[in-house]
Specification:
about 300 residues, alpha+beta, eight-stranded antiparallel sheet, three-stranded antiparallel sheet, about 25% strand, globular
Length: about 300
């Protein structure tokens, strides 16, 4: 990261930190297919730049591991492995897959990290402005299913049951990356934004929290030490055959969602907010409310 990518926003000073007033800084870099925006409070430009470098480097590291868009990523190397053969994986990939499988079980498969063969077809369909071929969709759906992915915590390995499986961590990786970037900053008062995923640290000096606009209504909430994720079809969708298909695919049918919906989840961790916001889009309001009775700590805004 060059110094030109750090924009100093010295909006106000607050209480002293080791004798120096705090100033607000902002840094922006492209990562994970979006612009990552980080705001933080530091005592000087040098401290801010060091924090930005650590956080952006951490995000780049996670993109190299978790992105299914990159042929050389760890997740794609895992997908090329032969079935029924345990493959050692990194601590990051293991942490994401462990949470992804837990979310899949909790949502009865409405969140499924193995949906890669199907989402690949829908990505190509959006490029071509046409619906995926029915036969190709059925074949791709046959190569999915979270129950065919197994983790071994002792050996830290992952194993696929059937050939041709492919992971898509798009509904969870940005939330995890936001969490990790916030931790990498090493400064308490900060906010990391990866598109619709926010990881929020301690309040700005002298404030109760960060002002965050929530969901489609833009309702402002004052938040600190939490995470926010918003999922919907406002940016990525396919209009075909007189219907609007979301980039969010129902794992049970292999078809992009057609109901216009935006879901925002506030949770302690970004990895949870991200995966739940995706799952709740698939579940719909009624089924989602039923499942959320077991998760009272989550705040959901539709």
């Amino acid at each position: 990261m060059t110094s030109s990518s750090v924009i100093a926003l010295c909006l106000f000073t607050a209480g002293p930190l080791h004798g120096a007033p705090l100033q607000l800084f902002e840094g922006v870099e492209p990562h994970m297919g979006t612009l990552v925006r980080i705001q933080l409070y530091a005592r000087d430009t040098g401290q801010a730049v060091r924090a930005f470098r650590a956080a952006f480097a951490r995000i780049a590291q996670l993109d190299a591991a978790l992105s299914d868009y990159r042929d050389d990523s760890e997740v794609n190397r895992l997908c090329r492995a032969a079935p029924n053969r345990p493959v050692p994986i990194s601590a990051d990939l293991y942490a994401v897959l462990e949470t992804a499988l837990r979310r899949a079980r909790e949502t009865e498969g409405s969140f499924d990290p193995t949906l890669g063969p199907v989402t690949a077809l829908w990505r190509e369909a959006r490029k071509q402005h046409r619906l995926p071929d029915d036969d190709a969709l059925r074949e791709a759906l046959a190569r999915t299913g979270y129950r065919h992915l197994h983790l071994d915590s002792a050996a830290r390995t992952a194993t696929f049951d059937i050939p041709g499986m492919r992971l898509d961590l798009g509904g969870i990786a940005k939330g995890y990356a936001a969490d990790e970037a916030l931790a990498a900053l090493g400064l308490p008062s900060a906010l990391v934004a990866l598109s619709g995923d926010l990881a929020i640290g301690a309040p700005p000096p002298g404030k109760k929290g960060w002002r965050i606009a929530i969901g489609s209504t833009g309702e402002v909430r004052i938040l600190a030490n939490t995470a926010v994720s918003t999922s919907g079809d406002t940016e990525q969708h396919l209009d075909a055959a007189g219907q609007r298909y979301s980039h969010i695919v129902d794992p049970h049918t292999g078809v992009g969602l057609t109901a216009r919906r935006m879901v925002t989840v506030i949770a302690r961790r970004g990895i949870d907010a991200d995966s739940w916001s995706t799952a709740l889009n698939v579940l719909g309001s009624d089924r989602g409310r039923q499942l959320l009775r077991n998760h009272p700590a989550l705040i959901v805004v539709e």
